[in-house]
Amino acid sequence: MEIEEDIYANVEEVCVKGYGDLAAGYETLHQSPQAGTRLKHGNQNSPPWRLATISLGLLCVLLLITIISLSVHYDEPYNELSRLQTSYNNLTEEKLQLQRTVSEQEKKISELGPCPDGWRRIRCSCYYLSNNSKTWSESRQDCRERGADLVIINSREEQKFLNKLGEKMYFWIGLTDSEKEGSWKWVDGTTPTTTQFWREGEPNNAQGDENCAVFNSFSDNLGNIQSWNDQPCSLLIHWVCNYTPKVSS
């Protein structure tokens, strides 16, 4: 019985003492704000392994951002190099194509017969500038007798070439609207592919019967090569014939 009484006494003492310590701690929290603060901070202190984990996570994020930045930084020069390589390949292909075209033209020209004496050549065509003056119809007849026709102009290169045939002069070209006013046709029946060579305000049919086109010499200093105007077909002036020689056998 004494043993049982000692056990109950000890249990009672522990319970009472534990309760008293808890009460004392409660009073301390309410009576001392500083103590409460210390307790609060003490509970928030994380274990070292948790801080290490957070630090490692932040380091991984920074490393990922750095890798992405470097990837973008180095990809841009690569993309630019790729674009330059593509442009270079395209230019090389265009150059080869142009060389093939030039070779074909040179071969074609070499196979053509020579231009007659007194005629001038540009690429595949021969041109003749008359020494005297005639009407448009008479001029065309002269060209036909030479196996040619009045000149047809379809390019800027040809326009500038014809300007070198004579300085400060004008001559008939194979362009007329005799069949229908305002409907200009070349002597081969085709419609002009360009209208940029007419002088400003031309053709204007100023005299009511200006149905044939005249080429006027021009100064090419400012790049203005507009030189055509319409005149009466009965006007007596020089003319230019044009033809393509046949391939020599």
Walk me through what this model shows.
With 249 residues, the chain is an alpha+beta fold. The protein is built from five helices and eight strands, in the order H-H-H-E-E-H-E-H-E-E-E-E-E. Strands 1, 2, 3, 4, 5, 6, 7 and 8 form an eight-stranded mixed β-sheet that branches. A hairpin with a 2-residue loop joins strand 1 and strand 2 (125-129). Helix 1 crosses helix 2 (33-44). Mean pLDDT is 78; it is low at 1-43.
Quick take:
This protein is of the alpha+beta class.
List the helices and strands and how they pair.
Elements: H1 2-31, H2 33-44, H3 48-111, E1 120-122, E2 125-129, H4 136-145, E3 149-150, H5 156-163, E4 170-176, E5 185-186, E6 212-216, E7 228-231, E8 238-243
Parallel strand pairs: 4-8
Antiparallel strand pairs: 1-2, 2-8, 3-8, 4-5, 4-6, 6-7
Helix pairs in contact: 1-2
